[in-house]
Amino acid sequence: MLIVNSFASSVTARNTVVVQRRLSEGVRETPSEVVRNTRRHEVEVVETNRRGHATRFAHDAARRGVDVVIGYGGDGTLNEVATGIAGSDTALGVLPGGSTNVFARTLGMPNDPVEAVEHLVRGIDAEDFRPIGLGQVNGRYFCFHTGIGFDAAVVQHVERHGSLKRWLGHPLFIYAGLSTWARGYDRKRPHFSLSGDGGNDLDNGYFTIVLNTNPYTYLGNRPLDLSPHAGLEQGLVAITFTTMRARAILTSLAGALKGGGVQPAPHLDIRTDVGALTVTHDEPFPYQLDGDALGETTRLDITHVPDAVRLVFPSSG
Questions:
Q1: Range of 250's domain?
Q2: Pairing mode of beta strands 222-224, 217-219
Q3: Beta strand pairing status for 276-289 and 145-149?
Q4: Which of 127, 226, 251, 262 has the fewest C-beta atoms under 10 angstroms from its C-beta?
Q5: Is the pTM for the entire model greater than 0.85?
Q6: Do 24 and 32 form a contact (C-beta atoms < 8 A)?
Q7: 124 — phi, psi (to 5°)?
């Protein structure tokens, strides 16, 4: 099953036709680099039109025993598909269709869906389906990260201008970040407390990034590398900023752009190989999963779920 979010920034009617055809052909390359049709796959195509739609499609496909369900859209679409098939024998396929496509690029896929489908088809033909761990927040899975506090407030701001996201992409995120910093987020008082694996209880959290993979995101073609300890076969990594001082935050993020992850600092709480965390506060705080803002809450229970889903590992040949 190919689940398509036709509103995603890189999804077009033409690309969808090309992707469907290549998936159905099941191509392989011979040693002479001549592409031959060695097998054919039945591909069912469905389109989403509202939030949660991809999860329902994916869950139904898994219930019916579909071999592979592919999320073709942005990272939010992929998140919904993963949530729908987690715990089943159905494998998860990834095709980039959004503006950033963090998870697909983390797997080494090209950012263009027509190029990426070749990598995916090779993985499907080779039946390279391997279990991976996912994070889970209040019962919902995430593939690569969860943002709590300031990070989530920026994503909320972007989604309030969702009609512009397809066309503006990264400039919209930059604008949202600056606007949220200036007048959309309280930078004087902590927003939550954090407790769990990897460190002492913390009561002065301003924002936290919980990583299932690394990098956290991409700025154009440059990865924002927060921790080399995050990976699909390891526990989660949680990085919490205990200040909103601009210099401290920018220094840490500038270091992340150079590679190697953020470095230990007095304003950072860094936890690796995390199995469980709890985030609470008397007043609601915002959170997002895989770039999808989910509103505000007063409590998050975060866990790492090993072997949560079988992933189709793409191959470059």
A1: 142-306
A2: antiparallel
A3: antiparallel
A4: 127
A5: yes
A6: no
A7: -65, -45
